[in-house]
Each structure stands twice: as C-alpha cells, then as structure tokens.
Specification:
Low-confidence stretches: none
Strand content: 15-25%
Mean pLDDT: 77
Number of strands: 6
Radius of gyration: 17 Å
Largest sheet: 4 strands, mixed
Structural class: alpha+beta
Number of helices: 4
Shape: globular
Helix content: 25-40%
Length: about 170
C-alpha cells in the first residue's frame, strides 16, 4: 500500500471519528439527533468528490450513491452498507481521535489526559468501532471502481433499522 493511501485512510478515520454522531435513544426520528447530519452531509460531499453518481441524502438520514458499472453488459450489483451513529451510552462530544498503529490490544493512554486509559475490557467498543465499518466504504470505492459491476452504497443511522421493524 502506498504511503499516500495510508495517509488518506488515516485522515479519513480521524476526520469521521472527530464528528459527534451520538444517537439519542429518546428520539423517535431518524436520524435520532440533528448532529448526525454533520457526518451524513460530509459523506455526500466526499462521495461526490470521488466520482459517485446519484448521490443524495434523504430527509430520514440515508446517504445513497451509485458507482456505475464499467462493463457494457448487465452485471450483478455489489452493495456497500454502513451506519453512522455512535451508541447513545457513549459521549461523543469533543472527541480527539488518536490512531495507534499496530495496536496489540493493550491499554491505550492519552498524552492530553494522563488519567484516561482505555482497555478493551473497560471499553468493548474500542475493538469494534462503528467507524471501522463506515470509513472503508468511502475509502475503498476508488479501489473497486474498475470492477465491471455497478456498486450501490447506502449509509444510514441505526435508527432506520428500528423503524423498519414495525
């Protein structure tokens, strides 16, 4: 992997993680908080910038986009799905993302907050960040663009899943 690609991926992860997307479990709307639109609008701009077509943001907080097929024949559609919100039980305001290269699963400390130490046991979301599902969708699109199949993208707040259950 090129240094430029690694830098882009790292910058994208930090940019996304710094945005407060905390869900509001008392809300009946989708998305459940207006602040989730900050990331959704950024995703619209970034998907447009990397060449996605039919990019739009619905009023219920779903970003939809298409990367057209490069083949002239009918090809199956490849789907990419991700969601944008942070679990309501975790404060997301003022987050200062930090990338720990080659993380070995041990405790993580923060230079700006010496008393803050995170471990996977205390913070189960540490090892399975929601953003690890979101940012690769946008980052990988230029890499898979040469594939001859059309690619459909849907990025949504998790509340959309709740509204479809009823």
């Amino acid at each position: 992997m090129s240094d430029d690609f690694v830098a882009e991926v790292t910058d994208r992860l930090i940019r996304y993680a710094a945005i407060d997307t905390q869900a509001d479990e008392t809300s009946a709307t989708s998305p459940s908080s207006a602040r989730q639109f900050t990331l959704l609008n950024l995703l619209v701009r970034e998907l447009t910038a990397i060449g996605a077509a039919e990019v739009r943001l619905t009023d219920y907080g779903v970003v939809l986009a298409t990367i057209p097929a490069t083949a002239g024949h009918n090809a199956p559609v490849m789907g990419w799905l991700a969601h944008v919100d942070t679990a309501p039980g975790f404060a997301a305001e003022g987050v200062k993302p930090r990338v720990v290269p080659a993380w070995d699963g041990s405790a993580i400390s923060f230079p700006y907050a010496p008393d803050l130490i995170l471990t996977p046991e205390q913070s189960p979301y540490l090892a399975q960040s929601i953003l690890l599902g979101l940012f690769p969708v946008v980052t990988v699109i230029p890499l898979v663009n040469p594939l001859p199949v059309p690619k459909k993208i849907a990025i949504f707040p998790a509340e959309i899943l709740e509204t479809t259950k009823s």
